[in-house]
Write a structure and sequence with these properties.
Layout: E1 2-5, E2 8-11, H1 29-39, E3 53-56, E4 64-66, E5 70-77, E6 80-85, E7 90-94, H2 97-117, H3 124-136, E8 137-139
Antiparallel strand pairs: 1-2, 3-5, 4-8, 5-6, 6-7
Length: 143
Protein backbone atom coordinates (compact mmCIF):
# COMPACT_ATOMS: atom_id res chain seq x y z
CA UNK A 1 0.00 0.00 0.00
CA UNK A 2 1.47 3.34 -0.95
CA UNK A 3 0.21 6.58 0.47
CA UNK A 4 1.54 10.11 0.60
CA UNK A 5 2.39 12.59 3.32
CA UNK A 6 2.75 16.18 2.19
CA UNK A 7 2.91 14.78 -1.39
CA UNK A 8 5.89 12.53 -0.54
CA UNK A 9 5.13 8.88 -1.35
CA UNK A 10 5.59 6.40 1.50
CA UNK A 11 5.58 2.67 0.90
CA UNK A 12 4.19 1.02 4.03
CA UNK A 13 4.27 -2.57 2.80
CA UNK A 14 6.86 -5.00 4.06
CA UNK A 15 8.46 -7.27 1.43
CA UNK A 16 5.62 -9.39 0.05
CA UNK A 17 5.73 -13.12 0.67
CA UNK A 18 3.64 -14.81 -2.06
CA UNK A 19 3.06 -17.81 0.24
CA UNK A 20 1.17 -15.71 2.75
CA UNK A 21 -2.04 -13.80 2.27
CA UNK A 22 -1.16 -11.38 5.05
CA UNK A 23 2.09 -9.52 5.71
CA UNK A 24 3.23 -7.39 8.63
CA UNK A 25 3.14 -3.76 7.57
CA UNK A 26 5.08 -1.01 9.25
CA UNK A 27 6.94 2.20 8.61
CA UNK A 28 10.49 2.18 9.88
CA UNK A 29 11.63 4.79 12.38
CA UNK A 30 14.47 5.77 10.02
CA UNK A 31 12.02 6.40 7.19
CA UNK A 32 9.76 8.33 9.55
CA UNK A 33 12.66 10.56 10.65
CA UNK A 34 13.71 11.16 7.03
CA UNK A 35 10.15 11.98 6.06
CA UNK A 36 9.52 14.35 8.93
CA UNK A 37 12.97 15.93 8.60
CA UNK A 38 12.35 16.66 4.94
CA UNK A 39 9.12 18.62 5.50
CA UNK A 40 9.43 20.16 8.97
CA UNK A 41 11.98 22.53 10.49
CA UNK A 42 14.60 20.86 12.71
CA UNK A 43 13.17 22.64 15.77
CA UNK A 44 9.90 20.69 15.47
CA UNK A 45 9.95 17.16 16.87
CA UNK A 46 7.28 14.73 15.71
CA UNK A 47 7.24 11.19 17.06
CA UNK A 48 6.20 8.33 14.79
CA UNK A 49 2.61 7.19 15.16
CA UNK A 50 2.19 4.64 17.92
CA UNK A 51 0.90 1.35 16.58
CA UNK A 52 -0.90 -0.68 19.23
CA UNK A 53 -2.62 -3.45 17.24
CA UNK A 54 -1.53 -5.40 14.19
CA UNK A 55 -2.33 -8.66 12.43
CA UNK A 56 0.49 -11.01 11.55
CA UNK A 57 0.22 -13.45 8.70
CA UNK A 58 3.59 -15.18 8.77
CA UNK A 59 5.57 -17.07 11.38
CA UNK A 60 8.89 -16.94 9.49
CA UNK A 61 8.97 -20.74 9.52
CA UNK A 62 8.75 -22.41 6.11
CA UNK A 63 6.98 -25.42 7.61
CA UNK A 64 3.98 -23.35 8.72
CA UNK A 65 1.38 -21.22 6.98
CA UNK A 66 -0.89 -18.75 8.76
CA UNK A 67 -4.40 -19.19 7.35
CA UNK A 68 -6.15 -16.79 9.72
CA UNK A 69 -4.33 -13.60 10.80
CA UNK A 70 -3.09 -13.56 14.37
CA UNK A 71 -4.14 -10.47 16.31
CA UNK A 72 -1.26 -8.87 18.21
CA UNK A 73 -1.25 -6.08 20.77
CA UNK A 74 1.88 -3.94 21.07
CA UNK A 75 2.87 -2.02 24.18
CA UNK A 76 5.90 -0.81 26.12
CA UNK A 77 6.98 -2.49 29.32
CA UNK A 78 10.01 -0.89 30.96
CA UNK A 79 12.68 -0.68 28.26
CA UNK A 80 11.17 -3.34 25.99
CA UNK A 81 8.43 -3.41 23.42
CA UNK A 82 6.05 -6.33 23.93
CA UNK A 83 4.09 -8.10 21.17
CA UNK A 84 1.26 -10.12 22.70
CA UNK A 85 -0.91 -12.67 20.90
CA UNK A 86 -3.74 -12.66 23.43
CA UNK A 87 -5.68 -15.58 21.90
CA UNK A 88 -2.60 -17.77 22.35
CA UNK A 89 -1.32 -16.23 25.60
CA UNK A 90 2.14 -15.82 24.01
CA UNK A 91 4.55 -12.89 24.07
CA UNK A 92 7.51 -11.59 22.09
CA UNK A 93 9.97 -9.00 23.36
CA UNK A 94 12.39 -6.64 21.67
CA UNK A 95 13.98 -3.21 21.59
CA UNK A 96 11.60 -2.19 18.81
CA UNK A 97 8.45 -3.34 17.06
CA UNK A 98 10.25 -5.51 14.51
CA UNK A 99 12.30 -7.39 17.12
CA UNK A 100 9.24 -8.01 19.30
CA UNK A 101 7.19 -9.32 16.36
CA UNK A 102 9.98 -11.61 15.15
CA UNK A 103 10.42 -12.97 18.68
CA UNK A 104 6.65 -13.59 18.90
CA UNK A 105 6.61 -15.32 15.51
CA UNK A 106 9.40 -17.67 16.59
CA UNK A 107 7.66 -18.33 19.91
CA UNK A 108 4.37 -19.20 18.20
CA UNK A 109 6.11 -21.53 15.73
CA UNK A 110 7.85 -23.35 18.60
CA UNK A 111 4.56 -23.52 20.50
CA UNK A 112 2.82 -25.06 17.49
CA UNK A 113 5.25 -27.97 17.25
CA UNK A 114 5.42 -28.49 21.02
CA UNK A 115 1.63 -28.64 21.40
CA UNK A 116 1.25 -30.80 18.27
CA UNK A 117 3.76 -33.31 19.61
CA UNK A 118 1.97 -33.54 22.97
CA UNK A 119 -1.66 -32.90 21.95
CA UNK A 120 -2.89 -36.13 23.57
CA UNK A 121 -1.58 -35.05 26.98
CA UNK A 122 -2.68 -31.38 27.13
CA UNK A 123 -4.69 -29.97 30.00
CA UNK A 124 -7.83 -27.90 29.32
CA UNK A 125 -6.04 -24.54 29.00
CA UNK A 126 -3.36 -25.80 26.61
CA UNK A 127 -6.01 -27.80 24.69
CA UNK A 128 -7.86 -24.50 24.07
CA UNK A 129 -4.62 -22.88 22.89
CA UNK A 130 -3.91 -25.85 20.59
CA UNK A 131 -7.41 -25.67 19.07
CA UNK A 132 -6.97 -21.95 18.40
CA UNK A 133 -3.47 -22.42 16.99
CA UNK A 134 -4.47 -25.42 14.87
CA UNK A 135 -7.33 -23.38 13.36
CA UNK A 136 -5.02 -20.42 12.69
CA UNK A 137 -1.86 -22.17 11.42
CA UNK A 138 -1.47 -25.09 9.01
CA UNK A 139 1.49 -27.29 8.22
CA UNK A 140 2.81 -26.80 4.70
CA UNK A 141 2.67 -29.86 2.42
CA UNK A 142 5.34 -32.43 3.06
CA UNK A 143 6.16 -31.41 6.65
Amino acid sequence: MTTAYKNIPIDFAAPHDPNNEYDVQEISIGLWEQLVGSVLPASVRVDPPEITHILIGSLRDGRLRVVEPIQVNLYRESESLVAEATDLNEFGFGNNQSEAIIDLQQTIAELYFSLRDHKDRLGPDLQRVWETLNRTVNLMNGT
